[in-house]
Design a protein that fits this description.
By secondary structure, the chain is an alpha/beta fold. It is built from 14 helices and six strands. It is globular and about 50 Å long. Bound molecules: 3'-phosphate-adenosine-5'-phosphate sulfate.
């Protein structure tokens, strides 16, 4: 992947995107969801893989020889992703023979293919506070050659604040999905910080939303298998098989913490960010925690 050229951001219908996530647009928009599909929707770096793997183990179990050889990308296809060197997300999703099919997306709510709404699919949305997310996304840009050049931390933070990021503005994403949730009972809106604080409680709420009742032993097994350190050491889950990622620069499973932003934001950056945040979130009822 040495010669891989980083993509540029493109303004796509008012949202910053890269070619990789829009070059299969017709197939994405025409994707035929099934009523039992479960869509895991997030702004990047909000805890997608964590929740994906929880759901994978919940529905398909830990000792499942067929799935054990598949990476998380194959188990939970990333709908809009279309790199030339691998099957597209749509193809991977269409090839799934499981029920339910678990499908991942980072699309803003208004870009989600309409069949997911028509089929009344269950959607699990995971949100993460803006500051930790910025830090995680920055390090992900550094190590992932499939993403635009991040520049240094301060210019990255400026672009992030301005919404000049892949999949658009964090503010628009979390608020767009939050608004949709107010009228759509099929959306379960979760927070990374709640998972980090009490994963057992969040697991119970998720199961109740999905109307599944795993045994206490199964719950224990799932929570054990999806611990940060366990996932970090699991080569099928930790993304080490993805060719565009350079683990010498940073790991996909990097720190997994709430509050890591404090080691990156300067006092001045934090003040500016807080002021901007207040303006952007003034009409929102969404509340995030930046520490637990
Ligand atoms: S992606 O690329 O959008 O799919 O990334 P995503 O999976 O949404 O987010 C990656 C961040 O989630 C952290 N993570 C976890 N934290 C705690 N516990 C568990 N089990 C866990 N699994 C994933 C991962 O470490 C990334 O966050 P940072 O802050 O970079 O460490």
């Amino acid at each position: 992947m040495e010669s891989f050229t980083r993509p540029e951001l493109i303004d796509f219908q008012g949202v910053s995107m890269t070619d990789t996530f829009i070059n299969d647009w017709e197939n994405i928009q025409n994707f035929k969801a099934r009523p039992d599909d479960i869509l895991i929707a997030t702004y990047p770096k909000a805890g997608t893989t964590w929740v994906s793997y929880i759901l994978d183990l919940l529905y398909f179990g830990k000792k499942n020889p067929e799935r054990e050889t598949l990476s998380i990308y194959e188990r939970v296809p990333f709908l809009e992703m279309n790199f030339s060197f691998m099957d597209s997300g749509v193809q991977l999703a269409e090839n799934l023979t499981t029920s339910p099919r678990l499908i991942k997306t980072h699309l803003p709510v208004h870009f989600v293919p309409k069949s997911f709404w028509e089929q009344k699919c269950k959607v699990v949305y995971v949100a993460r506070n803006a500051k930790d997310l910025a830090v995680s996304f920055y390090h992900f840009h550094r190590m992932n050659k499939g993403l635009p050049e991040p520049g240094d931390w301060s210019s990255f933070l400026q672009n992030y604040t301005d919404g000049k990021m892949l999949f658009g503005s964090w503010y628009d994403h979390v608020n767009g999905w939050w608004e949709k949730k107010q009228t759509c009972p099929n959306i379960h809106y979760m927070f990374y910080e709640d998972l980090a604080e009490d994963v057992g409680l969040e697991f119970d709420k998720l199961c109740s939303f999905l109307s599944v009742s795993p045994s206490i032993e199964k719950k224990k097994e799932i929570l054990e298998g999806t611990r940060f350190d366990k996932m970090k050491n699991n080569s099928m889950i930790n993304h080490s098989v993805v060719p565009v990622m350079d683990f010498k620069i940073s790991h996909f499973m990097r720190k997994g913490k709430v509050g890591d932003w404090k080691t990156h934001f300067t006092v001045a950056q934090n003040e500016v960010f807080d002021e901007h945040y207040k303006t952007k979130m003034k009409d929102s009822t969404l509340k995030f925690r930046t520490e637990i």
